[in-house]
């Protein structure tokens, strides 16, 4: 909690039974965990739950007054029906069987809290045997109560607890513990909590103090919960912003080799020999990267761009600038397929330009002899550019003089892994760093998770590339499915190639089954290839090389082809069961076609039913190819905690209140304040960051 945490044991503050219940329900053992169990909404004084509007079977808690009591005697079965008017103006019936004691306390005119499962009969809301707590006048210690509400008696008079509150918190509850019971525990903790000192060296303008925010989020005054909610969101944003500001400050302490552009070098030679002009965006990005490389401060830059926007050629030109200065470059990629392809394409591009720069691939599955030779060439300085997977990070890999690190598809790697590679620089020098992604990042995520990086953005596509057409193919429309297969055949007959992507290797709908089906039944006259993650490295390389040469008509693959694979002649893709993939993943897959000058098509097959969330998500991807628009859609449909690498449920939540889609002003303000604080009082900033939950720290370190 930004420099403060109530570390008291729950068992020291709450009744033993209540402390045990909170541990059983949520795993909580300390007071700070309960204080961070924030209300999910609030009920205003005089406002109840509209029972007519709740879903059948929902468990609700409401306050009502008994208008009349109906008794039905059926011999052995005596039924008591209490007709209750709730505070929303609605009415419901609470029914109890063989419970005469209830009638003695729930008399006509009695005001009580009811909590139970709601059903409806002939339009009338009903509860059977709901828990209740009678709200008696002040001065009475114990109120008649049953079930989960009985526990509220543990916290003294409800008139003290509720008082004249205008806002009643409604907490995320469970089958084991109700919202009211949680409210009682929070009230007891706050009653025994001394005033909390302000952890910051300033009071955020327009916000309550930290002490007020903690108390008022659980018990808002007449002004409502907006003020304390804003302050606590700000605290969460500031914690993340301080972590990034400290990382930026640390980066300024490091030295990097100065790698200025050399006019007569390999960089210039390749630039002048390219068969196509760089786009305006590429030129701008190259200028930024080139300028960063020429400085003695390590570059830390994120290059984000649409699928196919030409990031790789920018990276290659930047690497040649480093090579011109006698330094080696490392390009870290997520898959062996991509490592092999990048090594081939970079070598091909350099050879076409008559460049003397050398490239080698390094992967974990390389034959021992080939790997030994590659390692020897790297450490002796005979190789200029090394393209590799996680194998690059291993201790056995030593560079002669590493000056520049490029990380492709940064979301597959973390800061920890990037730093491991950067630690392989010569002497005290820290290599420059360029990380690239084809998954556009919403600006709020860029400010939090990537706040330590300068950001460059490529939006335009190189000339000659045509937009990819997309279409939905529901399994429920057999004619559409048949047409999709026909469309693939048409492209093959026109001399093009196709991908069929499956969500799994084995089982129904897997690549093994699909490959057999296509080769033996649908396309027996065509060449159908197979690619998945269980193949050996050399097998994957052989398949991709064959596909690139045009020897395979239809490639059935898993998502190993998701990033970086570049076959200009592939013009159609069918993604099977596309509802099983995320928005960004579908966008990445679609980017494997449309890489030449031909019209291209991506077909999203789905088993999802129209109107379902999954169907709508895939429809949205098919409707637009704008990666930045899809990035916001992805963020809107995912929980913010998932974006930050955490779960949004229970104790695992790290960012509990901050909405990364809507709270840009708060995040922007926190980033500005964090930068000022690190410059003004670094020691305080470090103390505040030390309090970020371990999961958040680990994520920021690894991502």
Overview of this structure, please?
Residues 487-636 form the Helicase C-terminal domain. One of its GO terms (biological process) is DNA repair. Pfam families: DEAD (PF00270), Helicase_C (PF00271), RecG_wedge (PF17191). Residues 292-458 form the Helicase ATP-binding domain. This protein has 703 residues and is an alpha/beta fold. It is globular.
Helix content: 25-40%
Sheet having the most strands: 7 strands, parallel
Give the CA-based shape.
globular
The CA-CA distance between the termini, in Å, is: 22 Å
Roughly what is the average pLDDT, rounded to an integer?
A: 86
Helix/strand/pairing class, anyone?
alpha/beta
CATH superfamily assignment of the largest domain?
Nucleic acid-binding proteins
β-strand percent reads 15-25%
Helix count, DSSP H or I runs of 4 or more residues: 25
User: How many β strands by DSSP?
Assistant: 21
User: Which CATH class of the largest domain?
Assistant: Mainly Beta
Radius of gyration: 32 Å
CATH third-level topology of the largest domain: OB fold (Dihydrolipoamide Acetyltransferase, E2P)
Strand order of the largest sheet: 11-12-10-13-14-9-15
The CATH architecture of the largest domain: Beta Barrel
- The structural domain count equals 4
Q: Show unreliable segments.
A: 639-653, 699-703
InterPro entries: DEAD/DEAH_box_helicase_dom, Helicase_ATP-bd, Helicase_C-like, NA-bd_OB-fold, P-loop_NTPase, RecG/Mfd, RecG_wedge
Protein name: ATP-dependent DNA helicase
GO molecular function, one term: DNA helicase activity
Organism: Corynebacterium doosanense CAU 212 = DSM 45436
